[in-house]
Amino acid sequence: MREKSVQEVQTKNPSKDDVELPRLGFVGMLRWAWRQLTSMRTALFLLLLLAVAAVPGSLFPQRPSNPSNVTQYLTDHPTSGPILDWFRLFDVYSSPWFAAIYLLLFTSLVGCVLPRAKIHFKAMRSAPPRTPKRLSRLAEYGTVEIPAGSGVDADQAIKDAAAVLKSRRYRVDVRDLGTGRPSVGAEIGFLKEVGNLVFHVSVLGVLAAVAYSGLAGYSGQRVVVEGETFVNTLVGYDTFTPGAYFNSDRLSPYSVELDKLAVKYDRESPGHYGQPIDFTASLTTKDGPDAAAKQQVLKVNDPVAMGGTNIYLVGNGYAPVVTVKDGTGKVAFQGPVVTIPTDGAYTSLMVIKVPDAKPRQLGFVGFFLPTALMDTSTGVAYGSDPDPFNPQLNLNAYTGDLGLDNGIPRNVYTLDTSKLKQINGRDMKSGGIVLAPGKSYTLPDGNGSISFDGIKRFAALDIRHDPGQVYVLVFAVLALGGLMASLFLNRRRVWIRTGNHPDGRTMVEFGLLARGEDHRLAGESAAINKALHAKWVVPADSPVEDGNRTPPNQTDTGTGVTVSSKDQ
Amino acid sequence: MPGINEGLALLSEQFMLMAGLAYAVAFCAFTWDLVTYSKTVRRGLAVETAGVTATAGVASADADQLVRVGAAGFMGQDLGAGPQGRGVRPSSKTHDGSDGITAGDSMRYGKAKRRAARIAVAITVVAAVVHGLAVLFRGLAAGRVPWGNMYEFCTTGGFTVALIFLLVLTRRDLRFLGTFVIGLVLVMITAASVAFWTPAGHLVPALQSYWLVIHVSIAVMSSSLFTLTFAMSVLQLLQSRRESSIASGKPDKALVMRLVPNALSLENMSYRINGIAFVGWTLTLMFGSIWAEKAWGRFWGWDTKEVWTFVIWVVYAGYLHARATRGWTGTRAAWLSIVGYLCVVFNFTIVNVYFSGLHSYAGVGS
Ligand code: HEM
User: Fold this and answer.
1) What is the pTM of this model?
2) Are B189 and B213 in the same domain?
3) A222 exposure class (CB count in 10 Å sphere: 0-12, 13-18, 19+)
């Protein structure tokens, strides 16, 4: 295959091409550029370039997976940050330069694969090449002598030999019958090249399927507290990322209620004490508003499939239930507050915003500790265990305008305290708010009160619809099959020639040649030798009666190698 | 979920220590083998120049044997057409080692007895058995597969390297790789016990999946194969320098390298193994994506670990291409194989320890 590959031949003389360049004209230039692009050397260069280009994506934070880290990086590096950003180093995998590399690579691939496919298709349909004059010059060579009087003449022997090769799944072509020196040419292993082509085309298929999956799918996140229900509509999501082809009619209106989230921690091995070992969410699901309710279990590594989507359990934490009464004594806020766990002990960041509080809006920032312990030296509480053995709220309170009314979207998990007046804090006279479940605290200056009513857990769900990924899998499996065929199959040619010796014996010689890498050629040669001996019931190493037999030429193997390497 | 068996965990650690000591001894024996071998060769060469080859009792038998075949080697040797030029693809035997400059390309066992090497292999077998038991006990202690954190990747990975090496040894004489391979296993066990040690425990929920069994075991096996080819590629570079220096008439300085096949056959052998390992790595990548889809809801997200797995895959794809590209076989291909392996090591150590990402479960740091 290689010596026939157009690119290979054409890049053989780059200097010649260079010299001719000025006279090529525009079309000639294009043709020259195309040949360069589709050469093996360019493919190799682009592959290595792709590997190098992928690396920065692991060194710098990436927007798609970690937008907040990118923002942080930009604030931390005010000069280098924007420069890196200009080079799209925070969006490496969607950057024009990354795309340029892989698009060039795939163009090169198409330009490489199509001509090869054509050549191979022709080769598969044409007869094995003519029998070389001197089989002894091939990489592997052997002889068989059929004794006189066995009734097998040269023509019969070649038919037998062809049958032997055929039973070894070779494609055979018998020639020169009746000339006294008949021969058979045989070839095997076309699947090797087919595998190579399938592999390359499938890699292209994987890329196409990945692109399709990005366009056609959608994904969203939703945090659900125990007892809450998620309904699969656009407003049901906290965040939603549609692909370009998304259309909101496609959302099937199923609903999922989180009944309970059970969490188990390791209480057994001292080295891993308190490490989570199981998260199990019990769900009540309905396929539509009127469908019957079903009980389902959602676990990490075990998504629930509903309405064309998969629901994944990707996070969890505590949602303490609080009630805030304002200065007028009215309940201004009541319910669970989702907190953000910051460490293995679930020390959870908590923000409460109470815009409805009168006369002034109220805001709280602090921590929820599932198991609070007091650091006696500093007097600060810290979380020591993820299970709620000694739950505690530690909060600071603020009053003023929370800035929620002017229409700018605000992150619910952060509170901008710069324009607010702090009324509680550990460093203040009033002290910080420290609450155990069932307790309540009266805010200073008649600002109302806050009570800690109980604890719930929440589950962070990812909801995905990805119609493309099955195609990715199909192409990946095809690529794998092609790769294995290409790497592990061998393409070989065998020629056998026979002749009638004047003394009545029939002389058989055979030679093997590999196309490309083939470390098992010697084994195949031995196997053919054995099969031929068996066919004519000649003992494998029969003592030669007349003693005239010339010993096999010692240099044959050496020259054979030269022949086979030239062939490439 | 079965409980943690602390007794077995302790036993596992004791066995690991014993295995480490045994490997250290095997390492010394392999080194000793190399030293005695080059001494024998030197003695043989000296005998030969003195012209008393025939005198019985002067030269040891194997030195004599080496010299007989070695004499012609300096000039008309057949060191293959590579590695600078186009690699000869092995269609049959290219070099039988009869020049005495390099070993035969079949890498089959010769007649010469190397006692030190035999002892080294025997000790390695013992060490590997003890090591295997240590890994087994660790798994039994935790009630799961023993590859859930860096300590376990390292110890189990070291065991597969040793095991694959021993398995290959039953078919081919790769004992010249012994110092390197066993040295590496030793480094892995030591790093595991010193830097990555973690008590036996349950897995975090993200790792509780049968994909851990499939994905990680294939990754570990492919990495072990890449380890072997890395060693071969390094030797290939050394051997090819030596070959060209000898070809230009300079004296043979590294006599030990006579144990090692010629650069071309090293290249061909590592190409074969790299082919298998590349298929393994492709599977690692595919199974990893399937698992990622199950665990995180997307099959590919350019997480740091994913990036590096991809980079490794592309580098080795480049290596396979290089073998079919004019001017890129031989030395350049060997460099690609080395770079690929450095990426594997980087992915395993630096990325696991210092980079944050979804894969940061390795049990170090936090
Ligand atoms: C995404 C890009 C590519 C990847 C991942 C890739 C990967 C591979 C791999 C792994 C092999 C070795 C296994 C086999 O023989 O099938 C291979 C072989 C081959 N590739 Fe590619 N390739 C890519 C692009 C290309 C391009 C652009 C060309 C042509 C210019 C090309 C031409 C070849 C040829 C001719 C072989 C056969 C080499 C041999 O016979 O040993 N490939 N490729």
Assistant:
1) 0.85
2) no
3) buried
